[in-house]
Write a structure and sequence with these properties.
Elements (H helix, E strand, L loop, with lengths): L1 H9 L2 H4 L3 H11 L37 E2 L6 E2 L7 E5 H6 L5 H5 L5 E2 L14 E2 L20 E5 L2 E2 L9 E8 L3 H4 L6 E7 L8 E11 L5 E13 L3 E12 L4 E6 L1 E2 L6 E2 L14 E4 L5 E15 L2 E15 L3 E2 L6 E2 L7 E2 L6 E3 L5 E16 L3 E19 L1 H6 L6 H5 L10 E19 L7 E21 L3 H7 L21 E22 L5 E22 L4 E3 L3 E3 L2 E15 L2 E12 L2 E2 L16 E2 L2 E13 L5 E12 L2 E5 L5 E5 L2 E14 L5 E14 L3 E6 L5 E8 L11 E14 L2 E12 L21 E12 L2 E8 L7 E3 L14 E3 L4 E9 L1
Parallel strand pairs: 6-9, 13-22
Antiparallel strand pairs: 1-2, 3-8, 4-5, 6-7, 8-9, 10-11, 10-49, 11-12, 12-17, 13-16, 14-15, 17-18, 18-23, 19-48, 20-21, 23-24, 24-25, 25-26, 26-27, 27-28, 28-29, 28-30, 28-31, 31-32, 32-35, 33-34, 35-36, 36-39, 37-38, 39-40, 40-43, 41-42, 43-44, 44-45, 45-46, 46-49, 47-48
Length: 846
């Protein structure tokens, strides 16, 4: 039967030869003889049984351990997973200086993220294969649309900010993962695989580090520890914690002292007897953009017998700091255009200007429960999670407002003449709580079985709130001191209408989202070494958005009225793979992704009115066509190569409209085409090993789109929001390359030395669609080329590591100014990467 099946498929060669996918299928089914493949174990709720990549022996022929993953909800070797998947071990994360998702995106080709610091964690999301149409975040408000990449701890979806601590590995699943990972896995998924408690073992670790950061006046330092405690013979407890302090490296000038803190804090008068003309009390701050981060985790495992276990874990993460990684290299110095009596120094390298301090903080809490039962024929497991994340960010927008349209709006907020202590600051706060429940039945697999399956059901309930507050602290009081008691003064506004706290704008948004879905994948082993996977997922979703909108300067009030956008969708997956030689496979894949739609509560009347066409936005979906080869040789050398073509329907774009309103809208169609290649293993030279990966993704609009919008002067203009076929999608480089070279040697009995050099190079990133903000200007980041060096000496339980991050102290522009060359160039804020850091880590494990 096997012979006839294979012959029949080979006879269809003319039908498939016209496509790349068909060619791969033909080679796989009609090519070289195959060899047996080790069976995969069934799914476990633990999902972290995969070993880390370890340092190679100093023998050139040493066997590097296989990497095991659980991306398909069962344990498999990395090369047997029939789609593009990368694994980054905890050791590799350390070598690359990765501490969170943003820094991970700089170390993994094909994965990107707007890295504006953790202060904007709620507004930035991972991007895989260029599937993103949203421009760089222009404001710190949390994102409105669902992320295009699903992020998971094990099997639990998460959001918020946390350090990557006590990890076994990170699995990067490229391409739509809608069947197993649901809505939000439009372009791929990230899985953070944590270390589980170990039964019957007392062990732990402690590590401390300190480093000198170029251009910073203080050292960095961190402390982390872990302990695994057996509780009898059937239970174990694992506790871990990490604290890290990152010093600032940017000096800020032009800050004003205030009475109190927050968005409504009024600047202090330099001359208390002259409220109308007095300057503020100015000061500068060195090492402004510092950050503190703490992540703690407790996990308890109970395993009364070999067939049943349950794990409950909790994570608390907090981060706080000041400012952001932005600098102004263009301001020539001189009198402030806001207060001519204040002289500001020149801008330059690691110099910035702000009227007010800009603190931020975020707290994230995650609790998960993972029971699992081996029923013999299959493993029944579940994941229950509850998480909250809340944050606030204070931003100064004074210079941007004063420079906008030649300062046309300044009199409405700063009076006439301009308040010398004028401040226009934003406060963004957000809160999210999410409950999710997933149940899975994963069949056992062995070489004699014809069918394997994964069946599951998923439920999620999420509530998100976001508040955007703008204040002009002190300006209404100054207007009153001028005797201004009317709305007009020498042809412009003099009286400044505000709410208590000098608030002149308030937008409060509440979203409710539920997702109920069922999913399954069936694997048919149609040949001894060939398999055919079909999968599907059906979504039933509800979404409501209620947003109040209160503008006091231009009296406009929009009450919180709920707008609904329900959705129902079924998506699929077809995956054909064949092992044509021992450990060498070829595959062809079609997979789909899906993301919910939603509603915008934009005003339909008044000076900031928008078209009814912007009240809702549709779900978007992707169709991924992919083919690849992957394998592993006996000496540990492994490789992956794939090509892909993703068709994207109704791409969602979150943007700041020309009127200043925030909204999500749809383009028509887009496409991302490219390839990925990755290889690792030992080198011919004794003790050396390598890992090289590269990705190319050309993501573009494939058709024009056009929508009406308010031009900022109260007039709705058809086609003001538009896009043209061929425009590059924002947020991802076309080309990215990563490489790691490692050398291991025993230099004396019980003394092992590991030296690693790694680097990443990527092409410039397009930051926006041409008309995203009503402008024809397309901005791009600089190219990015950064290397890290690390040398670790291990002696029994001790480990000492010397590290250098950003070896050559390269300064790259991650994002250029969104509002360039205005107000004497005071709006020229460039987002940059972190400078060189040289440090030492000392660790002990037992």
């Amino acid at each position: 039967m096997e012979k006839s099946t294979r012959a029949g498929l080979c006879s269809t060669t003319p039908l498939f030869a016209g496509t790349a996918v068909g060619a791969v299928m033909i080679m796989s089914l009609c090519g070289a003889p195959a060899y047996a493949q080790a069976p995969a174990a069934a799914d476990s709720a633990s999902s972290s049984s995969a070993p880390s990549n370890s340092a190679p022996s100093n023998s050139a022929q040493a066997v590097v351990p296989e990497v095991v993953v659980t991306a398909n909800r069962r344990s498999q070797t990395l090369e047997s997973v029939p789609y593009s998947l990368s694994v980054v071990s905890s050791e590799q994360l350390s070598q690359a200086g990765v501490t969170d998702l943003a820094s991970l995106s700089l170390a993994v080709p094909g994965l990107s993220m707007y890295d504006f610091g953790s202060r904007l964690a709620a507004a930035t999301v991972p991007i895989i294969r260029g599937i993103n149409a949203t421009s760089e975040p222009t404001r710190g408000f949390r994102s409105f649309e669902q992320s295009p990449v699903g992020v998971y701890i094990g099997n639990a979806p998460i959001e918020g900010y946390l350090q990557l601590d006590d990890l076994k590995q990170v699995e990067v699943l490229r391409g739509p993962q809608g069947t197993l990972y649901g809505a939000g896995a439009l372009g791929g998924a990230l899985r953070l695989i944590l270390n589980d408690p170990q039964l019957g073992q007392w062990h732990g670790s402690l590590e401390a580090s300190s480093g000198g950061v170029d251009h910073a006046g203080e050292p960095s330092y961190s402390f982390d520890g872990m302990i695994n405690v057996p509780v009898g013979e059937t239970a174990a407890l694992r506790l871990s914690a990490k604290y890290e302090y990152d010093p600032g490296f940017i000096n800020v000038h032009g800050l004003m002292k205030t009475t109190g803190s927050g968005v409504s804090a009024i600047p202090v008068l330099a001359n208390p007897n002259d409220e109308i003309n007095s300057s503020g009390v100015y000061y500068s701050k060195n090492d402004w953009n510092y950050q503190n981060a703490l992540t703690t985790r407790a996990s308890f495992l109970w395993q009364p017998d070999s067939r049943f276990h349950v794990e409950i874990s909790g994570i608390h993460a907090t981060v706080n700091g000041d400012g952001g990684p932005q600098v102004n290299p263009s301001f020539a110095g001189g009198a402030s255009p806001i207060d001519p009596n204040e002289t500001l120094p020149a801008g330059g390298k690691y110099q910035e200007f702000s009227q007010v301090d800009q603190p931020f903080s975020r707290n994230t809490n995650i609790v998960t429960l993972d029971p699992s039962y081996d029923a013999g024929f299959a493993t029944l497991s579940a994941t229950t999670s509850y998480q909250t994340t809340a944050g606030y960010t204070l931003e100064d927008d004074t210079y941007d407002l004063a420079g906008d349209d030649g300062g046309a709006y300044t009199p409405y907020y700063a009076g006439v003449p301009t308040n010398p202590r004028f401040v226009y600051d934003y406060l963004f706060t957000d809160h999210e709580q999410t409950f999710s429940q997933e149940i899975r039945l994963v069949s056992k697999t062995n070489p004699d079985k014809i069918f394997d399956y994964v069946l599951g059901a998923f439920y999620e309930s999420q509530e998100r709130t976001g508040d955007w507050t703008i204040a002009v602290p002190g300006s209404p009081e100054r207007a009153a001191a001028e005797g201004c008691n009317s709305a007009s003064y020498t042809g412009a506004y003099c009286q400044i209408p505000t709410a208590p706290g000098d608030v002149n704008f308030q937008q409060d948004d509440t979203q409710h989202f539920t997702d109920t879905s069922v999913f399954g994948e069936l694997t048919f082993h149609f040949l001894q070494h060939g398999q055919f996977i079909v999968g599907a997922r059906h979504f039933s979703q509800t979404f409501t958005d209620a947003q109040s909108y209160d503008d006091y300067t231009f009296p406009t009030f929009l009450p919180a009225t709920a707008h609904s956008a329900p959705a129902s969708k079924t998506i699929g997956k077809v995956d054909l793979s064949y092992e044509y030689a021992r450990g060498q496979s070829v595959y062809a894949l079609w997979s789909q992704g899906f993301r919910r739609g939603g509603a915008n509560s934009v005003p339909l009347t008044g000076p900031f009115q928008e078209s009814p066409l912007l009240q809702t936005y549709a779900p978007d979906s992707t169709n991924n066509y992919e083919a690849g080869v992957k394998g592993r040789f006996r000496n540990g050398l492994n490789y992956t190569f794939d090509i892909f073509d993703i068709k994207w329907n109704k791409p969602q774009i979150s943007a700041s409209l020309p009127s200043g309103n925030l909204a999500v809208y749809n383009a028509n169609t887009a496409e991302s085409k490219g390839f990925e290649i990755e290889t690792s293993g030992p080198l011919l030279v004794s003790g050396f090993s390598y890992n090289i990966s590269a990705a190319y993704a050309d993501a573009k609009l494939t058709s024009d789109f056009s929508l009406p919008a308010n031009d900022g002067a109260g007039v709705i203009i058809p086609g003001l929001i538009s896009g043209k076929a061929g425009e590059q999608l924002p947020g991802s480089p076309k080309v990215s390359v990563g490489a790691n070279l490692q050398y291991f040697r025993t230099i004396a009995p019980d003394y092992d030395l590991t030296v690693s050099l790694n680097g990443v190079s990527r092409s410039p990133i397009t930051m926006n669609l041409a008309s995203g903000l009503g402008t024809s200007t397309v901005q791009k980041s600089s190219a990015y080329n950064v290397f890290n060096l690390q040398a670790a000496l291990k002696h029994n339980s001790w480990r000492m590591t010397l590290y250098v991050k950003n070896l050559f102290d390269v300064e790259e522009t991650l994002a250029p100014p969104t509002q360039a060359n205005e107000l004497n160039n005071l709006t020229d804020d460039n987002i940059i990467n972190r400078p060189r850091e040289i440090g030492l880590r000392l660790g002990y494990s037992y």
